[in-house]
Design a protein that fits this description.
six-stranded parallel β-sheet, Rossmann fold, 18 helices, alpha/beta, 2 domains
Length: about 375
Amino acid sequence: MMMNEFFIIAGEASGDLHASSLVREMKNLAPDTVFRGIGGSRMRSAGVDTELDINEVNFIGFTSVLRNIFTIKKLLKKTSDSIIRNNPAAVILVDFPGFNLRIAQQIRQEYKGKIIYYISPQVWAWHKSRIKIMKEVLDLLIVVFPFETEFFRKEGMIAEYAGHPLVKRIDGFLKSSRKSENSKPSVSILSGSRKSEVDAMLPVMLESARELRKRFDCEINVVCAQHLPQEAYTRHIRDMNVKLVQGNDSTDANYSAILNSDLVLTKSGTSTLECALLGVPFLVVYRTGALNYMIGKRLVDVSHIAIVNILLNRPAVREFLQNEMTVKYIVNESEKILSDSSYRENMLSEFAELRKILGPKDASREAAKLICSVTGISTSD
């Protein structure tokens, strides 16, 4: 067994970001550690030797998985074979449960090292059938929401709360950034990091923004995922006067756009937590194909979709899903946020409560310490 080698897997842009921070912290604690795995440009810049890129493994939605099932099986086998052949000290799985839990199942019998999950699958919300698998294959579960420790410990798993990695990242950004004074209200649109999401949601979000411009003379920003080509967005924008914001690996352009907004229209996902931590009012939308929604609705066991509402256990922000994702509903809620100061301030006070729930922990460093401890890696700390 290679005692200083780790195999780490992330399959989405957010996982790539959090995994890269984790790798850097582990290298700070134990400089001789080596990382191989699956990831994106951020993980590569942190020193991970990636055998596959996230774009090669990222299939989203039930229908997309079905269409690409044979490709996925080949990728799973290739990855499992590599892990068993190289026999690292630990396999670190970062979010991306559809792929990562299958890898853990495939390697568990032959691979005797530690299997560690960082940023747990949200099985408390849906896919509770995965709990049994997780109990069988995982040695350690590192969670990013405080309530998850009790949930998983009741299921008989070793679970530790490390803090949420976005807290430190956004606090670092806010130390060097200030909200600028705008002569006009600013509205930013975050329609997703996958082309299918952009196609499904951006047209309605743009139409809503066009109506808001008529009423408030506001500036409109469309925040783009850094790994998607701009054409994925411009094909929907056409002649509408909007600003495209596209960051890269070394800038915080997306956070700047959000911070300098008076309102954000965002799809559900990590961006809802980012908006809340940045202290910017927002509303949440989501729309997917009818089949995906029908299957997903049967599996989901939570009353809210936005993690902000889940953590607070109340509807701090409005959610407009599927048939409720209409221009009328979006514009009505947007008007309240932009014109009713007490409504806006109440939302911001909810975000302050959310920060207290998450706490001040440096998640990447705490997670790195836990991993080094469970694998017996000596550290400089």
